[in-house]
Amino acid sequence: MEAKAEGMAHSSEPRFCPSCSGGLTPRRPKPAEPERLVCVECGSVLFLDPKVAACTICPLDGGIVLVRRSIEPAYGKWVIPGGHVDRGEEVAAAAVRETREETCLEVIVQELVNVYSYAGNAVVVVVYIAKVVGGRLQAGDETLEARVFAPSAIPWEDLAFVSTADALRDYLRRFGS
Known about the structure:
Oligomer: single chain
Helix content: 10-25%
CATH class of the largest domain: Alpha Beta
Number of strands: 11
Shape: elongated
Structural class: alpha+beta
CATH architecture of the largest domain: Alpha-Beta Complex
Number of helices: 2
Order of helices and strands: EEEEEEEEHEEEH
Largest sheet: 4 strands, mixed
CATH superfamily of the largest domain: Nucleoside Triphosphate Pyrophosphohydrolase
Strand order of the largest sheet: 8-4-10-9
Strand content: 35-45%
């Protein structure tokens, strides 16, 4: 969910211009702008947009649903259910879809908890509170395990991402559980 972006020299960044196939080089197109990839042939600026992730905090049986990841990054760590939003998909619909895929629960989005973004990280994380309306909690796609944790038993040291911890703290501070 939260792949780390390490600046302009990151190995997964494009090397060639999508317009003319010329080489891309880091440059400041305007003095007040950050460094961007610019084509050495045609001068086109390649904007590397962030990826959006949609997640849910699902209160259930007096606790909160967490899933243990079966993929990298953060294999084996705990997260709230969620994943990337597909192009053209509504963010809330992606949160519902990802929750179903990872927990086998049917949910309805109720309220926005917050939006999380961090310097140097290419993922913007949108977190909702979701009401469980059906299904049976079990590990689904990309999860090793799905469990309900009492607020006092949340595995803080084993959470996968800063956004997961921040969202859980915000939820517990605002809504208790």
